[in-house]
Amino acid sequence: MTTALITGITGQDGLYLAELLLANGYDVHGIVRGQNNPKLELVRRVLPDVTVHTGDLTDLSSLMRAMRDSDPDEVYNLGAVSFVAYSWMNAQVTSDVTGLGVLNMLEAVRLHAGDDPAAVRYYQASSSEMFGKVQQVPQSEATLLWPRSPYGVAKVYGHYMTINYRESYGMHASSGILFNHESPRRGPEFVTRKVSQAVARIKLGLQDTLTMGNLDAQRDWGFAGDYVEAMWLMLQQPDGDDYVISTGETHSIRDLLDVAFAHVGIEDWSGLVEQDPRFMRPAEVDQLLGDSSKARSRLGWKPKVSFTELVQMMVDNDLTEQKVLAGL
Ligand code: GDP
């Protein structure tokens, strides 16, 4: 039986990945942070077969203990402070967890693997936010990185440290440069879920308007369930490598609003959406568009869920959830 250890198992990607690995017959372990973490209950409910270890990406000895106790064949480092807007207000903690946390996890893997550094396969969750002020459209593995937020800078550190450990120690370490990926499990601080929740609430008469930031930014949005398959495929290759994972389609926040409102029968949302500088960022990533041809040819991966299907899935989920919450 193959054993996997996942950091960030309480998050959107961790939950989908754990489900995929369990379905593939894996013994799945996850690291959960903090005392009395409220998300622990979610993991136990959704994933009763996962073994939970207490640990923190800023605490190397806790990671080494989790490595010793789980003795994994594959490690997926998905844990991070992951909300870009928050990273300006908490730049140091973002750097510690999202950046230095990668070094800690790589060290824990290397020390545990001993004489055969490639024996434990390692996946690093890198991000399209590393492209930031994009130097090329579309963005590929070879595009110069130009991060635009403390989050993006921390992810660049983790990306290069992963490459460095692969080159320095011969580790089977892969970096997945994932473009934005969403689902009904996305946190409501992210724009897709914020919109799907608000559109559902407006449709149900529970909310009047929606307050947004920059409507002109463009993202290459895919479905998180499709993207975790790419993570797994990377670790099944003979060698570690870096791969862009994206749909190859870009849409603006306005397009997102169009699709979400249209799904509940509202064609003109102009009177329902307000803008507030509170939701604007000190530096913006204007347009992300990924070139995932390497992953498509080498991993045989491609996304299955389209942008429209993704947004509709999220709105449908929030309609159901909001009805229950409101007792409708
Ligand atoms: P990110 O790409 O990781 O930063 O993902 P987000 O979902 O947080 O943001 C995607 C884009 O939506 C960014 O360009 C934001 O500036 C833009 N955006 C516009 N209004 C909002 C908003 O109200 N909340 C969030 N989170 N993003 C917004």
Automatic annotation (TrEMBL):
Domain NAD(P)-binding: 5-314
Binding-site positions, NADP(+): 122
GO molecular function, one term: GDP-mannose 4,6-dehydratase activity
Catalysed transformations (reactions): GDP-alpha-D-mannose = GDP-4-dehydro-alpha-D-rhamnose + H2O
Keyword Lyase: yes
Single biological process term from Gene Ontology: 'de novo' GDP-L-fucose biosynthetic process
Record's keyword terms, sorted: Lyase, NADP
Classification via InterPro entries: GDP_Man_deHydtase, NAD(P)-bd_dom, NAD(P)-bd_dom_sf
Cofactor: NADP(+)
EC number annotated for this UniProt entry: 4.2.1.47
Pfam families from the UniProt entry: GDP_Man_Dehyd
Family from the record: Belongs to the NAD(P)-dependent epimerase/dehydratase family. GDP-mannose 4,6-dehydratase subfamily.
Protein name (database record): GDP-mannose 4,6-dehydratase
Origin species: Nocardioides mangrovicus
